[in-house]
Amino acid sequence: MSETKKNVKLRSAEWFGTQDKNGFMYRSWMKNQGIPDHEFQGKPIIGICNTWSELTPCNAHFRKLAEHVKKGIIEAGGWPVEFPVFSNGESNLRPTAMLTRNLASMDVEESIRGNPMDAVVLLVGCDKTTPALLMGAASCDIPAIVVTGGPMLNGKLNGKSIGSGTAVWQLHEQVKAGEISMHDFLAAEAGHSRSAGTCNTMGTASTMACMAEALGTSLPHNAAIPAVDARRYVLAHMSGMRIVEMVWEDLRLSKILTREAFENAIRVNAAIGGSTNAVIHLKAIAGRIGVDLELEDWTRIGRGTPTLVDLLPSGRFLMEEFYYAGGLPGVLRRLGENGLLPNKDALTANGKTIWENNKDAPIYDEEVIRPLENPLIKDGGICILRGNLAPRGAVLKPSAASPHLMQHRGRAVVFEDFDHYKSRIMDPDLDVDENCVLVMKNCGPKGYPGMAEVGNMGLPPKLLAKGIKDMVRISDARMSGTAYGTVVLHVAPEAMAGGPLGIVKDGDMIALDCAGGRLDLEISEEEMAARLAARAEQKNDLPKSGYAQLYVDHVLQADQGCDFDFLVGQRGSAVPKHSH
Ligand code: FES
Ligand code: MG
């Protein structure tokens, strides 16, 4: 045993390290799994936090992934203990997987703190599983490493590649516009998702995988190796080996998840054309570890950064090509060589700095990871908007928007909620033209509840039939990272929390100014005050019981990351009292 090893007091020894009644009980029941005595004698016990579920298809291959992590842990002299946590599957969970992100994070946090483990491997994939597990582990602040499940292979339709999610939005618009038949639409389903893994576009899952790597919480290349590529399983094995060393080095999340790491991640999000959801999730993770992060950091650090990665929905390719082109290490190198990686010294999970890890990373395909002189988007990043319609902010993704609409003034066509939108948008008599601004209320954290990804409202069929592809849309909802359009999202405060979005009326004029960072409703202050006062009188129908009530009572607004007010911050990993 090395000097360092001798100096580290294992947390798990508080369970397994005594010869008394307690030690007997903790060990004895574990031994019913066939664990020999010597495994309890001073080896790091490594939790494998698994979001496997057949209802989360993106994570359905995770038992195999866990087996490879275990091999690595055992090889490095640790002992693995795999445990399940709530699995947030984006595709099946209603009303939205976001409603249970915080629930999953609580599950993770309490599972870690209450159990005998010295460190944890976080098996993540589908969108919300990545932030949920990082949030929970951050609140415990023990050594942790992220292993992502990896993206699906390219989708295929009629011999051509199609991207997860993005293809659905496109095909659906084409059906509505009469460009393809319902038969062709339904025929696309199987080819769209033809292998294990997460969405293969630069949607939220891929974005959060890149964020985890940019934050330094995973080994290099974790974000992009396809789920079915054998190298994904090598990475899982190596991560298992590494987490054991992290115990001996006491390399806790708080040493990795620093302010500097978040600045790197914000810059990377711009370079990859990442999802708007990252704004919410990074804020929530930062809040747990105790790092200050403001919406304006996205303007200061991210805006103006060229988008180099040419992936759908902003660009052309998919995650498979991204990995073959060099993956995130290639992007990090390119940023660093051009003075665009803010903090090269940020520490990562393998004990090296982010720059040491990536400074020599090769780039194999400059169509996919483009040179700085020929970016996909010159001014990438996330546009943060404020104004009398969004006093606490709103976001828009310029790389997914139409340049001609980013400075726009138009007449509001208002939907009171998502049901109202669905019932009204098909109406051929709806008074709307391409210069109008579609406004949807009551889809925020409290209003939906759960802030569903309904913000990319599909356009009225009569305008689609005219060949209109984009309009300005504004809501307090989120949007899938696979979606696109000139869509203003995350308006805060949301309508249901008394935000001014709730008082917009049909015919009001709205001004959007992305360059100036403004979103304004063109009514007088007096009119605004009068309408807000009248609205405050109205009663709401928020949930009155169950988890949904806990959620609406405690969820913070989008600018605060939609965490629960009582979950923000670290609560450490002190060993709780004995159970008997
Ligand atoms: Fe799971 Fe997209 S639905 S990653
Ligand atoms: Mg998604």
Question: What is the topological layout?
Answer:
Layout: H1 3-7, H2 13-16, H3 21-31, E1 45-50, H4 62-75, E2 79-84, H5 101-114, E3 119-124, H6 129-140, E4 144-148, E5 155-157, E6 160-162, H7 166-176, H8 182-187, H9 189-192, H10 204-215, H11 230-248, H12 253-256, H13 259-272, H14 277-289, H15 295-302, H16 319-325, H17 327-337, H18 354-358, E7 383-387, E8 390-396, E9 407-415, H19 418-425, E10 437-440, H20 461-465, E11 472-475, E12 487-488, E13 509-513, E14 518-521, H21 525-537, H22 546-554
Parallel strand pairs: 1-2, 1-3, 3-4, 9-10, 10-11, 11-12
Antiparallel strand pairs: 5-6, 7-8, 9-13, 13-14
Helix pairs in contact: 4-11, 5-6, 6-14, 10-13, 10-14, 13-14, 13-15
This protein binds FE2/S2 (inorganic) cluster (FES) and magnesium ion.
The site of FE2/S2 (inorganic) cluster (FES) has 10 residues, from loops.
Keywords: Iron, Iron-sulfur, Lyase, Metal-binding
Enzyme class: lyase
Pfam family, one: ILV_EDD_C
